Amino acid sequence: MKESRRSHWEDFWNKKKDVGEVYSNADRVARNLSRVTDVWGKKILEVGAGTGRDSFPLVAMGAQVYQLDYSVHALMIMKRLAEEEHFPVFILGGDTFQLPFPDETFDIVFHQGLLEHFRPGKAEALLHENIRILKRGGLLLVDVPQRYHIYTLVKHFLIAINKWFAGWEREFSKSELRAMLQREGLQIVHAYGEWMYPSLLYRAAREALKKIGITLPLYPTLFQPLTKIRRSVRESLRDTPIAINTSLSFGLIGKK
């Protein structure tokens, strides 16, 4: 049975030391948490933090941020970025299934791109551990890949031929993730969807061209009026059922 192993992530983050080549979701978590709470003064944990960039904006907003990962290379990247940007974060190596914190430690726990790497039993154990360290009334944000997307087909093809960077990965529908969180006793307070920018086609073409020595910009330079129109459309539909059910990734925020 294929799985996502630690060795996959050590290899991935070792190759991604130049985080300028890694697409960031930095505004996504902060923006959506701000829809339901004021993060100032809140104690927040990012699990499976990777580069840590998803939680850096929360520091700027006055939160006390902890970042946890089990990849040594990811921890090295987080430490370097935090020092370069002068972000006073707490960086820890640890196991997401045995978090090194007492019960009810954090106001907010979140992860982006983590839950999908575990099969149902482990995914439920992961959520249970997240909730254990949440305070009463605390929030859990879970951000995962959408099932109904061409990305799903491409991903499973690459998994089948052993070319997927993470070894193995699943995906979710909104109703499936909602049911999982509700079974853990959470009340869903917010849902959002995020369309991929730049597009999957552009990203795939960029990676293919890099192999033959051609490097396109991380973000394409398009006709500016068209870029502004596309951005306006994305933002106007961001939290609607259309976006949530067709976007590459979506997230739910549950309250304990």
Integer count of domains: 1
SS class: alpha/beta
Low-confidence stretches: none
How many helical elements? 10
Q: Kindly report the oligomeric state of this protein.
A: single chain
Biggest β-sheet strands, sense, barrel? 7 strands, mixed
Give a topology summary.
Layout: H1 6-15, H2 26-34, E1 43-47, H3 56-60, E2 64-69, H4 72-85, E3 90-93, E4 106-112, H5 120-132, E5 134-145, H6 150-160, H7 174-183, E6 187-194, H8 200-210, H9 224-237, H10 241-246, E7 249-255
Parallel strand pairs: 1-2, 1-4, 2-3, 4-5
Antiparallel strand pairs: 5-7, 6-7
Helix pairs in contact: 1-4
Description:
This protein has 256 residues and is of the alpha/beta class. The relative contact order is 0.14. Strands 3-2-1-4-5-7-6 form a seven-stranded mixed sheet, sandwiched between helices. α5 links the parallel β4 and β5. It has one domain: 3-Layer(aba) Sandwich (Rossmann fold), CATH 3.40.50.150. It contains ten helices and seven strands. The model has no long low-confidence stretch (mean pLDDT 92).
How do you describe this structure in short?
By secondary structure, the protein is α/β, with parallel strands linked by helices. The protein has 10 helices and 7 strands.
Q: Any key phrases for this structure?
A:
seven-stranded mixed sheet; 7 strands; alpha/beta; globular; 256 residues; Rossmann fold; single chain
